[in-house]
Fold this protein.
Amino acid sequence: MAATADVAHHGDHAHHKPKHDYHLVDPSPWPLIGSIAALLLTGGGVMWMHGAAAGPWVVLLGFLGVAYVMVRWWRDVLRESSRGDHSAVVSRGLRIGMVLFITSEVFFFFAFFWAFFWGALVPPETYAVSWPPEGIEPVPAFDIPFLNTLILLLSGATVTWAHHAIRENDQQTAFKALALTVALGVTFTLFQVYEYVHAIHEGFTLQSGIFGSTFYMATGFHGFHVIVGTTFLIVCMMRAWYGTFRPDKHVGFEAAAWYWHFVDVVWLFLFVWVYWWGGSLRFTTTPVG
């Protein structure tokens, strides 16, 4: 009787299983917990900037919450994939989602470039403006920025090498290529930190007119994206170490590679237009009237 009931139970479960290519996710606490953590992070940031004593601690709590949710949510998605929930239709949807996310990031940086070009090409007419501000020396384009350009271009080649290795089911080589990519990403970040420290010491800060504010917002957010991309690639590196990628299905790595190439392209625009062109531009306006 027990065996019969068990068979009946499995047959009933199979009968109610949806017969389609889409995956209906299990109930998850991470969207709610992630929203609360993000609220703590942003709210704590506002408190910190307004001098509240608890601000830094709220920021720390929010950051730890966001990091925890990312790890657990990412783990759940990987488990869904490993048990076969990500059909071809679901994988295509994940790719489309990543493309749309990168598109939103393009518009995000477009806003900063718009502000930079507006300040450089359409200066205000009501008060005098100098580009760059008086007493400020822009970061030399063919110093650390050029070195970082070479580093990111090389990292784009190594992540492509890793992709080819995964498609050949050579995950050992993929791990080595990803480790090299991660090392290049960390090196880029360290050089940018050194560049910032040196520039700020020389008096070039976020308060250095529209030139300084747009420079640090654009390059700073790009640096943040490099850190996010490096973290993304570390996850892929560990997955390659454990041999979880398949030659015909590795959407997670594809998303990481697309994101990293996007970071590369944005940096090329930053190097050419912000560091090189913007740093060599010189003008002083006089008020009208």
